[in-house]
Task: inverse folding
């Protein structure tokens, strides 16, 4: 609600001629222009190139078209000589003291500069490496999870085959079982029937034996003693005849 | 000639405008503000690393109540080191050669530690006046001595820093003048004086850093006693 008020008053103030331009600045509407530059622009990775540690490379490039490579150095030398000869810069004891501290500073920078820079870079590298490691770990975990999932899906497909095999197995077992039972039934029935056959055989044999015995008994009983004597006499006469026949041969 | 040696210690003015405020505030320009970026340039990384390590080392023996002083002592250390090191350049003014500045830093900070000790734990603070295991007849004398030592602390802090830096700067000036004046007359002596000057410069670099560190370390020790 207040922003509408601001907009209305801003347009009203802009239209008022004498103070318009000056008040536009103060009554600019908020949060509409990209002045905050919310995605921060990236910094350059390395600092600007400098020559001799002090003078930017752009200065040499600036003078190169007109004065070539030695231009800036001639300028520097000329400047120095001008300052010295006109005694704008007076050489006194401070110069010697300054030269000493200058030697110490330059030596320090030349000796320890690269190692300190490498250390600073290493600090940043470690930061990046830690974050990268976390990212890589997460990435690896997720890829692993994807592969595991694919494997599980493959296994799920394979399960159908497993089910088929198991079903076949079960069917075979059932088949075997039923056939076994059939056999058992057949065997049992055969056993019963065999028993009956044996029983009948036994009966017939017994009847036969009984009849034979009865016939024998009746025959033996019908033989009178006279008949027995006659038969025995006949047998003896037969035997004698045979013996005579034999002796004659 | 002898008087001009002390010109370097005069508070700088230019056309009547005192520049000492600039001398005290401009060294801070050398340290970039920590940015909200995750990765910084080398200077900022090193600055952050150094401040972290220094504060961690300094406040290791202090209990948590003393950690309130972390910002003050760390910034004091950076301030003193910068002032001292910048003062080694030629034609510069070193504010820490002024007794007024050093006493102005030492007395309030020391008084703050004593006041904190007296307010929070008066018995323990007063107990520091008598070291353990003193034989009984020595107790009154020792209390007097310890009180004197207590009140001499701010004086010692301020004067130590002032004297070290002033003496160093004065020596540099003297030996440089000797080398400069002798150069046309006796070049060999001038060269040896220059060598001495070089070694002295190395010493002064060390002294500059050590004195700042000692100042802050002693303050942290006084804080440790009282917090």
Result:
């Amino acid at each position: 609600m207040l922003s509408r008020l601001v907009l209305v008053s801003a347009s009203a103030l802009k239209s008022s001629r004498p103070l318009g331009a000056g008040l536009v600045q103060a009554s600019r509407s908020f949060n509409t222009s990209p002045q905050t530059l919310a995605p921060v622009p990236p910094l350059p990775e390395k600092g600007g190139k400098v020559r001799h540690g002090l003078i930017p490379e752009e200065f040499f490039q600036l003078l190169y078209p007109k004065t070539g490579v030695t231009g800036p150095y001639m300028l520097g030398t000329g400047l120095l000589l001008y300052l010295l000869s006109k005694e704008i810069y007076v050489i006194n004891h401070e110069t010697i003291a300054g030269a000493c501290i200058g030697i110490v500073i330059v030596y320090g920078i030349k000796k320890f500069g690269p190692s300190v820079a490498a250390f600073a870079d290493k600090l940043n590298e470690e930061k990046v490496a830690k974050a990268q490691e976390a990212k890589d770990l997460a990435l690896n975990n997720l890829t692993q999870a994807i592969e595991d999932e694919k494997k599980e899906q493959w296994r799920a497909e394979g399960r159908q085959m497993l089910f088929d095999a198991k079903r076949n197995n079960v069917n075979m077992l059932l088949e075997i079982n039923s056939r076994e039972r059939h056999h058992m039934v057949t065997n049992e029935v055969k056993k019963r029937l065999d028993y009956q056959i044996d029983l009948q055989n036994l009966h017939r044999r017994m009847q036969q034996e009984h009849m034979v015995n009865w016939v024998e008994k009746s025959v033996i009983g019908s033989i009178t003693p006279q008949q027995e004597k006659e038969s025995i006499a006949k047998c003896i006469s037969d035997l004698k005849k045979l013996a005579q026949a034999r002796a004659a041969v | 000639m002898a008087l001009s040696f002390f010109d370097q210690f005069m508070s700088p003015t230019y056309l009547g405008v005192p520049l000492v405020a600039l001398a005290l505030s401009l060294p801070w320009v050398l340290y970039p503000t920590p940015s909200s970026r995750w990765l910084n340039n080398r200077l900022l990384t090193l600055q952050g690393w150094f401040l972290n390590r220094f504060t961690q080392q300094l406040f290791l023996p202090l209990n948590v109540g003393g950690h309130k002083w972390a910002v003050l002592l760390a910034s004091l250390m950076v301030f003193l080191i910068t002032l001292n090191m910048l003062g080694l350049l030629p034609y510069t003014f070193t504010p820490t050669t002024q007794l007024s500045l050093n006493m102005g830093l030492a007395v309030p900070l020391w008084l703050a530690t004593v006041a904190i000790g007296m307010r929070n734990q008066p018995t323990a603070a007063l107990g520091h006046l008598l070291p353990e295991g003193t034989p009984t007849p020595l107790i009154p004398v020792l209390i007097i001595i310890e009180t004197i030592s207590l009140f001499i602390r701010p004086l010692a802090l301020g004067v130590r820093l002032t004297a070290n830096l002033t003496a160093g700067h004065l020596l540099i000036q003297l030996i440089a003048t000797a080398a400069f004046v002798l150069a046309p007359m006796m070049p060999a002596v001038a060269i040896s004086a220059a060598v001495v000057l070089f070694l002295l410069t190395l010493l002064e670099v060390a002294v500059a850093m050590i004195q700042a560190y000692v100042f802050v370390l002693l303050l942290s020790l006084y804080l440790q006693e009282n917090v």
In short: Chain B has seven helices and two strands.
